[in-house]
Amino acid sequence: MSPVPATPKSKRRPDRRARILAAAMDLFHNKGFHATGMDEIGAAAGITGPGIYRHFESKEKILATGVREAVGGWLDRNRAILALPAPPEAVLDGLIANFVEGLIADRFVSVIIMRERHALEPDTRRWVDRAERKHIEAWVEALRRLRPDLPESEARLMVHAGLWMCLCVAYYDSGVEPKQEAEMLTSMVRSALLGSCAGPLTG
């Protein structure tokens, strides 16, 4: 009788780490960081006993990892967009779309970052502060490529205003279908940044 081939570990056990992160971030968003316990995260992820500690040593580490992975993804995409051999207008459109679509797909991440920043470990809090500055710099650079007449201080103010316009979706349930919501926000932010220079959306 032939031996039964071993099932690959990855098929026997779906990615527990990813399940823990997803469950924890959902709980942090809905209940708050301090009101959520490790046992509760484990139960939500379908992991009992000490299994959760094989992946994360503490609730703080889970929060830090979830935040770093989400924000890091945004920054990586920003860098790729800025490096594209594309017209300046297409680059700015790409940055806006990246932020808006990311917010709508993972609304809870921005809420957690803003509401639970005090719960982040100092190193992660400093990392988030630097990441936010890099994100703003990317938008300012793209905007000034299109509008070199703008003083940097004015471009920076406009970018901050545009970002906060996007962040409304993290707190406000519009009831609008996500694709339409993304298109509306992208168009509004683009018009606010470009003013009379705004032409039709590229794509």
Which segments are poorly predicted (pLDDT under 50) over 5 or more consecutive residues? 1-12, 198-203
Category by helix and strand content: mainly alpha
Q: Roughly how many Å is the radius of gyration? A: 20 Å
**H/E series:** HHHHHHHHH
The best one-word shape is elongated
Helix content: 55-70%
| Largest β sheet strand count, sense and barrel closure | none
Percent of residues in beta strands: under 5%
Number of separate helices: 9
Question: Average pLDDT, to the nearest integer?
Answer: 85
The tally of beta strands, per DSSP, is 0
Ends distance? 60 Å
Describe this structure as you would to a colleague.
The structure is a single chain. The longest helix has 25 residues, at 122-146. Helices cover 69% and strands 0% of the residues. With 203 residues, it is mainly α. It starts with 8 loop residues before the first helix and ends in a 9-residue tail after the last helix. The radius of gyration is 20 Å and the shape is elongated. Helix 2 crosses helix 6 (107-115) and helix 6 (107-115) packs across helix 8. The chain has nine helices and no strands.
